[in-house]
């Protein structure tokens, strides 16, 4: 382990998980970073960026990828490039698309999945995808290890929900054999217009056996429309155009009811994304 000092900033670089967790317990005000590509971009009090940093990048336990028959586990400090290269043929295609969309090759060489999930002020590219994939996170602090579902770790405006001295130490992504997966990101990151749609579907012959969709607007508000999902599960493909229109109307009403503050443009985008996805589903027969 080492401690570097630069101007007013002190950087602690542990090489073992034990040293990392002990240091973080004793310095709960220190800010952990992995690639640093988000933290230093957003540099400011919102991310808690202060005088003391902990570099997660030298802890080997946090930099590994492993897999079983049922899931793949990714260390939070593994670079996005490495995840893409190692997991390309096994990871869900929607996640692959989200990872490929992050920045450029230079950014992806440093950026990590842990940092993408744990950004406090924004919901970043992988969040609406991971939300659909039943992802679980291992959280550790000295003397305690627990597993949480991503939808409990970050829920609505809340989260990431970490105890003092606690870090994400593993990200578990189940393999679920989706038949159709779509990820679409529009407009510039960190602008109110930024928009992500993700949809995944499993079919049994021509019947929808599972369907999940998420929409993320302005890098913050993330919506799942479970009643529309429930309406579609069990339906036979193709979905007739009039039923597609009815789903669009239901979605519209739901958003107006639950998010009255949302502007018409975004309501329209959400509705259009659902239409587009249903079209892809019909074509996938
Ligand atoms: C040019 C450019 C383009 C970009 N484009 C995109 C894009 O298209 N989509 C996108 O999503 N992002 C984008 N980003 C932002 C960023 O690169 C990614 O979100 C990246 O995945 C963040 O990972 P990181 O390791 O760099 O995070 P860091 O900056 O290291 O950390 C981010 C936050 O997570 C916390 N954290 C990190 N690891 C842990 C952990 N294990 N436990 C608890 N907390 C932790 C940190 O304290 C910090 O608050 C871009 C950045 C740049 C510079």
From TrEMBL:
Species lineage: Bacteria, Pseudomonadati, Spirochaetota, Spirochaetia, Spirochaetales
InterPro entries hit by this protein: Diverse_Substr_Oxidored, FAD-bd_PCMH, FAD-bd_PCMH-like_sf, FAD-bd_PCMH_sub2, Mopterin_DH_FAD-bd
Organism: Marispirochaeta aestuarii
Protein name: FAD-binding PCMH-type domain-containing protein
One Pfam family this sequence matches: FAD_binding_5
GO MF annotation terms: FAD binding; oxidoreductase activity
Ranges for domain FAD-binding PCMH-type: 4-178
């Amino acid at each position: 382990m080492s401690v570097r000092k630069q101007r007013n900033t002190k950087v602690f670089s542990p090489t073992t998980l034990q040293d990392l967790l002990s240091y973080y317990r004793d310095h709960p005000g220190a800010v952990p970073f992995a690639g640093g590509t988000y933290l230093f971009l957003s540099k400011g009090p919102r991310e808690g960026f202060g005088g003391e940093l902990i570099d997660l990048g030298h802890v080997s336990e946090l930099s590994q990828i492993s897999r079983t028959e049922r899931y793949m586990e990714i260390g939070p400090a593994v670079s996005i490039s490495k995840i893409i290269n190692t997991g390309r043929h096994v990871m869900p295609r929607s996640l692959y698309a989200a990872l490929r969309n992050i920045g450029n090759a230079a950014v992806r060489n440093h950026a990590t999945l842990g940092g993408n999930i744990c950004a406090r002020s924004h919901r970043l590219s992988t969040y609406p995808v991971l939300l659909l994939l039943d992802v679980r996170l291992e959280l550790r602090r000295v003397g305690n290890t627990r597993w949480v579902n991503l939808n409990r770790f970050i829920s609505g405006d809340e989260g990431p929900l970490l105890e003092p001295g606690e870090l994400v130490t593993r990200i578990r992504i189940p393999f679920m054999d989706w038949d159709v997966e779509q990820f679409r990101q529009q407009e510039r990151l960190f602008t109110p217009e930024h928009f992500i749609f993700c949809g995944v579907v499993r079919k049994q012959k021509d019947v929808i056996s599972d369907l999940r969709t998420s929409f993320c607007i302005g890098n913050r508000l993330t919506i799942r429309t479970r009643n529309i999902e429930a309406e579609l599960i069990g339906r036979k493909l193709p979905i007739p155009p009039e039923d597609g229109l009815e789903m669009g109307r239901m979605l519209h009403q739901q958003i107006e009811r639950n998010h009255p503050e949302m502007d018409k443009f975004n309501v329209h985008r959400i509705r259009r994304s659902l239409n587009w996805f249903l079209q892809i589903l019909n074509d996938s027969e």
